[in-house]
Structure formats: C-alpha cells, structure tokens
Write a structure and sequence with these properties.
12 helices, alpha+beta, 4-stranded antiparallel sheet, Endonuclease, Chain A, 7-stranded mixed sheet, rod-shaped
Length: 313
Amino acid sequence: MKNQKSAQLGKESGGGTNSLAVAELTTAEAIRSRIFTTRGVQVMLDRDLSGLYGVSTGALNQAVKRNKNRFPERFMFQLNKEEAENLKSQSVIASWGGSRSCPYAFTEQGIAMLSSVLRSETAILVSIRIMDAFVAMRKALASFAPMLMRIDTVERRQIVDQAHNEERFKLILDAMQDKKFPPQKVFFDGQIYDAFEQMKKFMRMAKSELIVIDPYFDDSVLPLVAQKRPGVTVLVVKNSRKNQLHDVDVAQFNAQYGDTLTVKESDKFHDRFLIIDKSTLVHVGASLNHLGKKCFAFSSLDRSNIPDILAKF
C-alpha cells in the first residue's frame, strides 16, 4: 500500500517531467531566494518546496505526516502566527491569510529527508540542488565572518568609548551643578564684596571637612568660616608667630557651632590654600583677611598635591 502511495506521489511530483524544465525551475538563485532564517536556523517553507518538487503543498505535507517519525522538530516545525505574520510583512509569504493554517518550515536536514519520502527522479534532483544551495550560503556567510567580527569589535569599542565620554560629561556637569567646577578667577583692587562672596561659596562646598591654610589667619576671618554647612569640621593652619587668633575666639566659635573648629600652627607655609573634603585643592593669592584689597586670584590645583600638603603639618 505504501509503495502505491509513493508511486502516486512520484507521478504528482513530475517523475517523468523534462529534466531541463526542472533545472530551470531549480536554479541556485531561485532556491536561495526561498531560503530564510527563523529560530536561528535556515529553512524553506512547505509551499516553496512543493513548487520546486512539482507537487501540491497538501500532498507534500501528507507525505510527511505518513512518515512523521522521520521528521523531528529539528527537521521540520510549524511556524507560529507571529513568525508567519513577520514573514508576510517581508513578502516571504505573499498570499498567506489569517484563515489559513500557518505553514511548515523545513531545515536542511528535513529537506534531505524529503528526498527519501518523495521517491521520484525530480525529488532527488531537486534535493541535491537545494543541498548545494544551503552549502553555498553557509560558505558565503563564513566568508563574511571575519568582517562581521571586525565590525563587532569596532562597535564594542565605540560603545565603551561612548560610555567613558558620558561618564566624563556627567562628572563635569555634576561638578558644575555642585559649584565644584575648578575656579580660576582674578579679583582686582576694590572687588572686596565679590572676593568675599567667592570665598563663601568655597566654604559652603565642603560636606564634611574644610582645611584652611593661611599664615595670617586671624579672628576677622571667622565670619567667613561660619558660612560652612552645619556639622562640617574646620582645621585652620596658621603661622605660630602671628598671634592674632586667641583661644577665646576659638572657644566662642565652638560654643555656637559645636566644637567644629581646630587650630594648628606651622611655619612651613607661605601661600594660602583651601582643601575641601580632601578632594578639592584651591590656591588663594591673598590672605583671607585682605581679600579684595589688592589684585589677586583664586585657582584650582591638581588634587594629587593634597597628600603632600597634608604631610607638612
């Protein structure tokens, strides 16, 4: 009975058709145009295969069903609606309609198995040509692999560089928002108010600790220091020979601001510095009690100098 069905299928498949007509129908380009990728594998649809084999789609699928054990899912599977709609949108399935069942897709192994089910001269010839087309496509893809790898490498580098640049921009923008952008400004003789306003901003930048190094620091600078945030500790480093800041001044300041002011003496400094949270270093060109009286400047210095300065006292 099976032989009779196979013989009948062989007639449907054009066992006696002209081999030249088959050759024209199954050119490499015609076959390649019917191969596409879904679920990560290259496949051909039942409707395209039936056209190449010269049988109806129903006859082809019936032959497969009669030999179901020869077609596991890795050989043949039915597309779901989403996959079918996707192919329809790409004009792979031009006439597929919503009322029709989704087509079946055959992998390379499944197509090879079809030649043993469709026992005809046409089926054998077509299967050979299809196998050649699959092999040619694999070789073509393999030849593109090195180029694709290079493109992937370049894209990865661009992504990394973009991430680094975005991080740098974020740091700069955050610094500007927090008023931590490196200050470089000259104040001229008479700009007393502007100079004091800039110094207040520096004092308010500190979130935990402020170090003021000024050999001539005296009690007139304490109102500036009082501009700090609540809870921020202040260490003043001054010249031991300049005795213009007394213990009573420190005690009165701490009585109001909670023991946040400490004074150290050192004769190793000539210039004035502000160290903010041990991460920002500002050079001040004038003593804090003479701001704006003569031309001077604030300037930001590299934070890598902070440990060396701290080691001096």
